[in-house]
Amino acid sequence: MKKGSNDIRDVVYIHLNEKERFVLSYGIEFREFYRILAETLSSVLLLKHQFEDGEFNIHTQFEYVPNTKLAKLSKEDVYGYGDFVWVDFDETEILDILEGQTIAELLYLGHKLEPLRKPFFQQLNNQYAYLAHDDGWFNKIYYKNMDSFYQLFGDVIAKKVTDLKLEKGLLGLKKKRIYPSPPNEIVMELKHYMNEGMVLSIEKASQTRLKMEIPIWILGDFDNMDDMYEEYEKNSKQKTDALLIFDKKLREWHLTKA
Known about the structure:
Blueprint (H helix, E strand, L loop, with lengths): L10 E7 L4 E5 L3 H8 L5 E6 L6 E3 L4 E4 L4 H5 L8 E7 L10 H13 L15 E6 L4 E6 L2 H19 L1 E3 L5 E3 L7 H6 L1 H6 L1 E4 L4 E2 L3 E8 L6 H11 L6 E6 L4 E6 L1
Antiparallel strand pairs: 1-2, 1-11, 2-8, 3-5, 3-6, 4-5, 6-7, 7-8, 9-10, 11-13, 12-13, 13-14, 14-15
């Protein structure tokens, strides 16, 4: 059964295709993407959306969101848009001289949610092509620089764990523990699992006073997230393929492979 926007934040599925520079994901939303990578965005050209406060460019016939309105877009219910597709760009003036071939490829990208060829356009100098259906449910994001994704992944995991895990302190009162992002070397260790299609389940994390363990399973390559979630529910009753462990005393992350 398809789960709503609020149900997906504590399960993260990643299938990484480093050669083609894209990531298929479930459980990471645009608001998280923007919070972490906002500094890498100038403006956004909207190809599929329902944002009502965009600017209109006559030459391309596309709406766009200037940098000053991106924070507002990030607060929208983009999950409710259905399809949400955009590419970023550097200079607003470039839209007025965008070549017909590029406009045609952008139209195809928005219509089919897949590129005709690599979706990085010289005139736009875009860093991303963001293709989502029910944002957070099915996201396919192209990264010009894959380091941006690795930063996003680490920061998202830290924020989700921080938001979801309240622990009992003295007098039984719940306290919030701030978790750091896993270091880059741990994220790089996880690349092998990401290449195969992995799910990291914060909802099934276990913890003691000394540590927290987040289970990881290899699920394989899915582009249908209903099928992925069914496979996750099946696998979550079985032995993990790895554990992402946070040592609370040392405040360090470790990865233990099965």
